[in-house]
Amino acid sequence: MNWAQAIIASLKAQAISMIAFVPDVSIDKVTRLMEKDPFFTVVAATREEEAIGIASGAYAVGRNAAVFMQSSGFGNSVNAIASLCMPCRIPIPMFINLRGQLGEFNIAQVAMGQATRPILDVLGLPHYVLNASDDIEKVTTGALQLCYGSRQPLAICLTPLLTGGKLV
């Protein structure tokens, strides 16, 4: 089972069937598989804060949802997370592809890629980093259980060691 299949298995095990994402080649392996799977409703958003809103609305009507984004887009979504999800206790698991890491070629991705985890720390949000050697399904399933058990947003950060990174 590859990393994308392991994430999908974890989402299914936790009955997370609504997926909001901002299209990007770095998360394409997992989002394409979900789009082909009738278990999931996959919605492409134009911005990350819109994806947070879609997932929050799904939760409000009783459906578990997750958001997939790139670290630069995480910066766009901070206000929606801090002013909607956190005070309303909306558990949104965010899968964040970390840019600005090993092999990064785009200088514009470095600052936010390196600031993502410290921002999560400042917000007090749990986050877990997945590398290629991790037990992906076990870590992801545990993180998703914590997200819904604590009723707070949570991040699962995907590194280039896991995804293969974004190529020039």
Write a short abstract of this structure.
This protein is 52% helix and 18% strand. It is α/β, with parallel strands linked by helices.
Q: Could you characterize the architecture of this molecule?
A:
It is a single chain. Strands 2-1-3-4-6-5 form a six-stranded parallel β-sheet, with helices on both faces. By secondary structure, the chain is of the alpha/beta class. The protein has seven helices and six strands, in the order αβαβαβαβαβαβα. It has helices at residues 3-13, 28-36, 48-60, 71-88, 107-123, 136-150, 160-163, and strands at 16-21, 41-44, 64-70, 93-97, 127-130, 154-158. The model has no long low-confidence stretch (mean pLDDT 93). It is globular. It has one domain: Thiamin diphosphate (ThDP)-binding fold, Pyr/PP domains (Rossmann fold), CATH 3.40.50. Helix 1 (3-13) runs parallel beside helix 6 and helix 3 (48-60) packs parallel to helix 4 (71-88).
